[in-house]
Amino acid sequence: MVLSLEQRIFLVLEWPHLEHSCVETRRSFRRIFLERRDPSDNAIKALFEMFERTGNVNDDRIGNVCPPRSAITESNSDYVHLVVRQRPRTSVHSIFGEKNNIIFIC
Length: 106
Hints:
Elements: H1 5-17, H2 22-33, H3 41-54, H4 74-86, H5 92-97
Helix pairs in contact: 1-2, 1-3
Organism: Araneus ventricosus
Protein name: DUF4817 domain-containing protein
Pfam family, one: DUF4817
């Protein structure tokens, strides 16, 4: 279950208010958000622990959290075209395995 930012904030505020009771927190969550599925006990505890540790409720796993592993540049494009023309049966994997000529951006 993926929680919205509003739902994560609600859980972090509600958990200590209800004396760290997962059952009461889930009941309150269902009542407010009218959701049939509610977060598990472990999810509530993990969210609160993350908030205590970082002061943040954002879930970094949602969406693309890492920058692209490589970039298309003119020199990369020219090099790939050259290799494909010289060795047409070369796989893309082996072309990109030759890291000395391709610029990787991490």
